[in-house]
Write a structure and sequence with these properties.
Largest interface: A-B, 41 and 41 residues
Strand content of chain A: under 5%
Radius of gyration of chain A: 16 Å
Order of helices and strands of chain B: HHHHEEEEEEEEEEEEH
Number of strands of chain B: 12
Distance between the termini of chain A: 24 Å
Number of helices of chain A: 7
Largest sheet of chain B: 6 strands, antiparallel, barrel
Structural class of chain A: mainly alpha
Mean pLDDT of chain B: 80
Oligomer: heterodimer
Low-confidence stretches of chain B: 83-89, 91-96
Radius of gyration of chain B: 22 Å
Shape of chain B: globular
Number of helices of chain B: 5
Shape of chain A: globular
Order of helices and strands of chain A: HHHHHHH
Distance between the termini of chain B: 47 Å
Number of strands of chain A: 0
Structural class of chain B: alpha+beta
Mean pLDDT of chain A: 87
Strand content of chain B: 25-35%
Helix content of chain A: over 70%
Chain lengths: 173, 271
């Protein structure tokens, strides 16, 4: 159990650092703003207490907020996907034979499952995030385009990160 | 009472979720442009140091460009020495004694979000205060919204709440500048009275009405005049004078008369 806590702390620091000092510094344009730090929330064990999931999501979002101008935007979006995460996992289908404390990653659940999972979560996260950021509806279509384009990049990056780290441990199932 | 506790226990996940969302929205409200507060400052202290380390490393790769910018600015300043040339390229900025200036370096900046911010390496210690204007060597850049001991955070013109009072240089008509959120090089001029003719290349400068920026700083030049047939005001696309993607050295402008002017315009209520 302790090794799992340690692993998650390392992952948290790594992802926040990657997001703030590498991804956010690559300034393509307003349509491509990937937010890969949500991978931290995605990879928490399936059976994590639900209150802890929300608390961690709030802390994660706020950490990213500290590096942007306004507090609360990322925490609102991240807490939202943490809230719907149990429902999304149930919707895509849990593995019955699997142990409950598994991480929902590519190796444990397969590429297709993970892709569907990331797509739902990234899209919904970005949807909430970008609309709160704009906070007005007269830029509705423009913001939607931003959500779709950025989610696509986020999904691709998260899958690449997963494949890079999984290979070290063993072949993808 | 028991049913209430039972209800809370049963729905604790939903209640905790709503509590966190409420807290987030409270933070958004508390730290947004209209109510900038100390919370931004405390976050500055933590992230400012990290940002400075990053900027120190990344800065090495940009020395050439910075040199060019400084050389350009030197030439501008030189041209302001009386007797050298007649034209003042950044009128008001030097002669005006109603304003004082602090130079600073941008250590973190973005141009690709809907709301962009930057961090500078000067803070309260150096006399930086909230509401000071930020100008680049070529034009205006933003407004300070949060200050900590050694750093300050500014709201870029590239922000949804930006609304800068400007005027058309050739006829002095007042207009407003906003940012539409697409391109960091293009702003939008709104509230242009329909009877006015604007041409590509016309200069837009600050009006001096806002108490933040001195009058006559360059905002940009007109790129395209957009006529809205059925509306009261026309709009135009603006080429920003400031290159937000290469914002390195900036000046903070302090209006020395701001308190007096503020009191005059918004007198304190006496019962």
């Amino acid at each position: 159990m302790n090794s799992q806590v340690f692993k998650n702390i390392v992952r948290f620091v790594f992802l926040v650092f990657l997001q703030v000092f590498i991804i956010d510094k690559v300034q393509l344009n307003v349509y491509f703003n990937p937010y890969i730090y949500i991978l931290f929330i995605l990879l928490l064990p399936v059976d994590i207490p639900r209150w802890l999931l929300l608390v961690l999501a709030f802390i994660t979002g706020l950490s990213i907020d500290f590096f942007s101008g306004i507090l609360g935007i990322h925490s609102a979006a991240t807490v939202f996907i943490a809230f719907i995460r149990p429902g999304i996992i149930k919707l895509i289908g849990e593995k019955e034979d699997a142990e409950q404390n598994l991480e929902p990653n590519i190796r444990n659940f397969g590429l297709l499952w993970f892709f569907t999972y990331v797509s739902f979560m990234a899209f919904l996260h970005h949807l909430v995030l970008f609309y709160i950021e704009v906070f007005r509806f007269n830029e509705f279509l423009d913001t939607l385009l931003r959500v779709v384009a950025s989610s696509a990049v986020t999904i691709a990056l998260i899958i690449i990160i997963q494949l890079l780290f999984i290979r070290r441990i063993g072949p993808v199932r | 009472m028991r049913t209430l506790i039972g209800f809370i226990i049963k729905n604790y996940f939903l209640i905790l979720f709503l509590a966190f969302e409420a807290m987030s929205f409270y933070l958004i409200y508390e730290t947004s442009y209209y109510r900038r507060h100390s919370m931004i400052s405390s976050s500055n202290r933590i992230t400012g140091t990290l940002d400075r380390v990053y900027s120190d490393i990344a800065g090495y790769f940009l020395l050439n460009r910075e040199n060019e910018m400084l050389a350009y600015e030197n030439s501008l300043l030189r041209s302001m020495i009386p007797g050298d040339t007649v034209e003042y390229p950044v009128p008001g900025s030097i002669r005006d004694t109603a304003y004082s200036y602090i130079s600073a370096k941008v250590i973190s900046n973005s141009t690709h979000k809907r709301n962009n911010f930057f961090t500078i390496n000067k803070g309260r210690e150096h006399g930086v205060q909230v509401d000071m204007g930020v100008i680049s060597p070529t034009g205006i850049a933003g407004i300070i919204i949060g200050v900590s001991e050694n750093f300050a955070r500014g709201m870029s013109l590239l922000h949804k709440d930006t609304r800068i009072s400007g005027k058309i240089k050739k006829n002095g008509q007042l207009i407003n500048i906003v940012w539409g959120g697409h391109d960091y090089r293009k702003g939008k001029v709104i509230d242009i009275p329909t009877h006015l003719e604007l041409n590509k290349g016309d200069t837009i400068i600050t009006s001096g009405n806002s108490l933040i920026f001195p009058e006559g700083l360059l905002l940009g030049t007109i790129d395209e005049y957009l006529v809205n047939r059925d509306q009261l005001f026309n709009s135009a696309r603006l080429d920003f004078a400031t290159d937000f993607n290469s914002l390195y050295y900036v000046y903070l402008v302090k209006n020395l008369n701001i308190e007096e002017l503020d009191q005059l315009q918004n007198p304190p209520e006496n019962e």
